[in-house]
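Lecture notes, unit on protein representations.

Consider one protein chain, 245 amino acids long.
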Amino acid sequence: MLDEYGYDDNLSSMYEEYTNLIGRDTEAGEAAAFLERFCIRGNALELGIGNGRVAGPLSERGVRVEGIDNSDSMLKLLAERTYQVEAWKGDIANFSVEQVYDLVFCIYGTFTLLSNREDQIACLRSAAAALNKEGVLVIEIRVPVLGGFVNRQRITARLFDDKNTFVDTETHDPLNQTVTSTSLWFSGKSIRRWPQRIRYVYHQELDTMAECVGLELAERWENWMRDGFTDTSERHISVYRRASP
């Protein structure tokens, strides 16, 4: 992940408010239930663990959860949320661990914060190496929505309620599959700025990259409730296992 788009104290605080505002906190239990079924031996590793929004509920189900994140601020929020989850600062593109896991998961679009294809493949390779023989990798990302760009630029507004409005300014680089954005969050009388850069990935490319590191698709769903993934789905949750010999 790029340092200039990293989560400092201000952005980490905004992240907590934002995920609660859009209902992601309320679906954390659904995500934990989905992930728990893969934890046969009871351990899991989250890449980009953040504030433990899902890791916390998963640990409460008896799973020993560990995590990696590159933000000191996020790791501080995690420590304030729960003492049951062990996490350390690191780069999810290139990491190694001393043990193997039933489950490695990277959710809520964190994978796309890796800003180039090489880092994304490196992340998949590191994740595959961290799996035990029956282990699975779970990735949740949004389906790219690229309509509305004019001269590679797009401005959109999102009204959440009578107090919170987002204005997003985005620049699209189709050659590198990146979208660089700045969100302005108008809340009451305050205005806050949230910069971000992602490298979007279609599900077909994700499957190909996974195959490059010895993984194959086992399941794909639209959401944590396991509704079917269709051509109208806005995101997907993909489950990968080691490829059959």
